[in-house]
Design goal:
Substrate binds at residues 99, 101, 119. A divalent metal cation binds at residues 16, 145, 195. GO terms for molecular function: calcium ion binding; gluconolactonase activity. It comes from Haloterrigena gelatinilytica. The protein is 1% helix and 51% strand. By secondary structure, it is an all-beta fold. The strands form six sheets. A four-stranded antiparallel beta sheet has the order 1-24-23-22, with no helix packed on it. Strands 2-3-4-5 form a four-stranded antiparallel beta sheet, with no helix packed on it. The protein has a four-stranded antiparallel beta sheet with strand order 6-7-8-9, with no helix packed on it. The protein starts with a strand and ends in a 17-residue tail after the last strand. The model has no long low-confidence stretch (mean pLDDT 96).
Length: 290
């Protein structure tokens, strides 16, 4: 039987991007606008603020590098942070008008990273290659969000939140190229907004539902087959974690600080156990940092 528990009542404004760090046996996630990186230790059942940016610069997402450090994607900047450090160092800058949002490393160590819309333009999806060069791969995106790969590494999923769509692309592992975009899932406009996602060991997609209070599981054809309800309206992202990758962690948001409106668990980190599926280790970035 599936059990959902609140494991860190951080009351994040916008909790996002949970990712398991196997070297440390812990889960990291961010509170985007606060520029805060949190760490949860499931063995001790404790959480702590691991890092905070200078001047409250937002952290839209992060990846784990091959050496165990983290790449932090901020306002047009990518910084490298070593766990336990008090500061981060610049890796590269991207000519973007807005902050980064969701990001994901691919099997070759590149990073796909999306930006938010600005006042006069939409966002874009970029690819940060291992030599730290940047290429725009999808233009005019209305909130770039959750991404993932099928087990055969031939399909890449990408969420455009305000379009209420999750797309599927043909993915070229050798070049990092994306082609043949098609709609995998289109969600009802009045049923919440698709946000972060993860792909489980059965090649089913779990999509967090912002303003929908749940995560929805889709089979490989895009049909919804299950859902997990969370006591928070804004469920922002999901990931499988733990030594066996059999626990599902969910981040949530408490925009405005009103739990009466947003739900008793808004802004907290949740863990679901007892699922009949699991996940696998996330790919690590291998971006040149020096």
């Amino acid at each position: 039987m599936t059990r959902l528990e609140r494991v860190a009542d951080t009351q994040n404004d916008t909790g996002e991007g949970p990712l398991w760090h196997p070297d440390e046996g812990c889960l990291y996630w961010v509170d985007i606008p606060a520029g805060e990186l949190y760490r949860f230790d499931p063995d001790a059942e404790t959480h702590a603020l691991a890092y905070e940016t200078d001047g409250d610069q937002p952290i839209g997402g992060f990846t784990i590098q091959a050496d165990g450090s983290l790449l932090l994607f901020q306002n047009g900047r990518v910084n490298r942070w070593r766990p336990g450090s008090k500061s981060a160092t610049l890796v590269t800058e991207v000519d973007a008008d807005t902050r980064f949002n969701d990001v994901i490393a691919d099997p070759e160590g590149r990073v796909f990273c999306g930006t938010m819309p600005g006042e006069d333009s939409l966002g874009d999806l970029y690819r940060l290659d291992v030599d730290a060069t940047v290429t725009t791969v999808v233009e005019d995106v209305d909130i770039a969000n959750g991404m993932g790969f099928t087990a055969d590494l031939e399909t890449f999923y990408f969420t455009e939140s305000e379009a209420h769509r999750i797309y599927a692309f043909d993915y070229d592992r050798e070049t990092g190229g994306l082609s043949n975009r098609r709609t995998f899932v289109e969600t009802p406009v009045d049923d919440g907004i698709p946000d972060g996602l993860t792909v489980d060991e059965d090649d089913y997609v779990w999509s967090a539902r912002w303003n929908g209070g749940r995560a929805v599981r889709y089979d490989p054809t895009g049909d919804p087959v299950d859902q997990l309800t969370v006591p928070a309206r804004k469920v922002s992202s999901v990931t499988f974690a733990g030594p066996e990758y059999d626990d599902l962690y969910l981040t949530t948001a408490l925009e405005g600080g009103d739990r009466e409106a947003e739900g008793d668990g808004a802004g907290a980190l949740f863990r679901a156990t007892g699922l009949e599926t699991g996940g696998s280790e996330a790919f690590r970035s291998r971006v040149r940092t020096e």
